Amino acid sequence: MDRNLPLNLVRVTEAAALESARYLGRGDKNVVDQAAVNGMRNMFDTINIDGTVVIGEGELDEAPMLYIGEQIGKAKEGCPEVDIAVDPVDGTIAVSKGLSNSISVVAIAPKGCLLHAPDMYMDKIAVGPKARGVIDINAPVKENLRNVAKALNKSVSDITVTMLDRPRHEKLVKDIREAGARIKLFRDGDVAAAIATGFEHSGVDILMGIGGAPEGVIAAAALKCMGGEFQGKLHPMDDIQKERCIKMGANVNTVLTMEDLAKGNEIVFAATGISDGELLKGVLYYGNDMAKTHSMVMRAETGTIRFIEAIHRLDKKPEYAK
Ligand code: VTB
Ligand code: MG
Ligand code: MG
Description:
Number of domains: 2
CATH topology of the largest domain: Fructose-1,6-Bisphosphatase, Chain A, domain 1
Binding site for Mn(2+) 1: 33, 57
Strand content: 25-35%
CATH superfamily of the largest domain: Fructose-1,6-Bisphosphatase, subunit A, domain 1
Structural class: alpha+beta
CATH class of the largest domain: Alpha Beta
Bound molecules: 7-O-phosphono-alpha-L-galacto-hept-2-ulopyranose, magnesium ion
Largest sheet: 8 strands, mixed
Distance between the termini: 28 Å
Pfam families: FBPase_glpX
Pathway: Carbohydrate biosynthesis
Binding site for substrate: 90-92, 121, 166-168, 188-190, 212
Helix content: 25-40%
Number of strands: 13
């Protein structure tokens, strides 16, 4: 994989963020998403990859762009055949309401290396590098907390678990409290929260709970770059979803490991903040057609993590980048 691909990829998430952040707090989540998709899609066509969307905006009939199976990139001879996972806006409702923590994300891996996860829920557990190898999504909460605490050389009472603030996590919250650990809830965006576990001083040690399965694949790709660990189990809500799981060779008990979700080491990941979050600041627009973005880009092969703060002269952007 070209080592400059990550630097190119950040243009893609920047474009999505620059377009969609315009609609912060305007109350329309579809407009937010559409703007991000347009920005992302146009920028992809300037990058020399032979890409297929494996995690995207849905099937062709429901999504005109960045749909699953769509070929994207400016393929030229010798350029890599890759799988692409996108979430142009993780947190569309958050952006539409003017709430925090929404990001634009993309992960790329060689063809066949990213799981084609169905659009349903996934039960997740994620940790950073120091706790890699000690988590087990099937183990009781107490046991995971004890093992992670040991790996981090902390006591359980110093461990902070982060999760989406949802009624479905009532039992999980109870178990964590009983075990004596701390909890930090967030409203939206569990990709950013999973990434936070990969940074030692982020204030969160473990992500737990149920969020979107596509976001699970993207989070696994990010944690692969960071040397952390992610495990997931698909969480179908009805018989139709159960059927979809079985069709793809999984059931509710199948544990999806890092290797099932994001295989190998040739993975690249990029994210740009849309609305302000703890991981990345949101887009700042200022006078005379200027904007500032905050992004991160990572490559599993070398483990380099780059934070990129960019100042954009919007009046000078070429047509494809508008
Ligand atoms: C999840 C999570 C996302 O929305 O999909 C969540 O993975 C939806 O959960 O990061 P609910 O159905 O309970 O709202 C996000 O938080 C944002 O898209
Ligand atoms: Mg989205
Ligand atoms: Mg999402």
